[in-house]
Amino acid sequence: MDKKTQTLLRKAFERGLANTVIHAMMPELTIKRINTIRGELGFTAKSVVENRYASWKRMLEDGYAVDVIAQIYNVKPRTVQYVLWTESNYSFRKKAHGQVTIMTPDEQMEKFKKSQAEDRRRMAKIKTFSW
User: Fold this and answer.
1) What is the pLDDT of residue 129?
2) Are the C-beta atoms of residues 75 and 84 closer than 8 Å to each other?
3) What is the pLDDT, as a whole number, of residue 92?
4) What is the dihedral of CA 41, 38, 5, 55, to 10 degrees?
């Protein structure tokens, strides 16, 4: 294997690309050969998956839309959302222009508490109003 191919594969594993995605990009390499090379380069299947999730988070923080990430990694957008939620407790709130904001559970709870306080204030105004 030449140096250029080895460098491309190393970058692909660092970004967490699945063997099937790599095979689609480099059809001359069989999936079995990709598995062998992955081991030779010191990557385990688990480390590639962890790299994938870390890459997804970085891409989201850099402003990539979930749809774009899903297309790059050949998965459904809901898969990106579901996996990051189950693995890292991240949730998503889509904004205008395709940007996605990541909200941690603490941020979600803070937002929820603020909305509850606003609801209580509104209810207090309604109760004090009389006809």
Assistant:
1) 46
2) no
3) 63
4) -100
Alpha carbon 57 to its chain centroid, in Å, reads 5
Distance (Å, rounded) from C-alpha 26 to C-alpha 5?
9
Phi and psi of 89, rounded to 5°? 60, 35
Between CA 69 and CA 112 the distance in angstroms is 28
Model-level pTM? 0.67
Positions in the chain short of pLDDT 50: 94-97, 129-131
* Paired sense of beta strands 100-103 and 91-94, if any: antiparallel
The pLDDT, as a whole number, for residue 30 is 94
Phi/psi region, residue 115 (left: phi>0; alpha: psi -120 to 50; beta: rest), is alpha
- Report CA 50 to chain centroid distance, whole Å: 11
Contact 79, 70 (CB under 8 A): yes
Residue 9 pLDDT: 93
Structure tokens at 16: 């967490």
* C-alpha span between 100 and 108 (Å, rounded): 15
d(CA 48, CA 14): 7
